Description:
By secondary structure, the protein is α+β, with helices and mostly antiparallel strands. The protein has one helix at about 40-50, and strands spanning about 5-20, 25-30, 60-70.
Amino acid sequence: MATMEFRGAIGKVFFDGGVTEDGKLIRKAKSYRNIAQGIDATNLYEALSQLAQFSERTVVGMEKVETTEVVK
């Protein structure tokens, strides 16, 4: 039987990078590695919000990207 094992997670903060000539939003991203596997949404949001304060740009979104490995 195969299982999935946690490999790592990245927290991403997306910033407003302006607009294109077509009027589409340009998003700039900053990634933060080594996010804990079991972190809850509130704690992750607070941590990424604090880090985002170092930027002059406006935050437009955040996400957590997890990587898992399928093993037998």
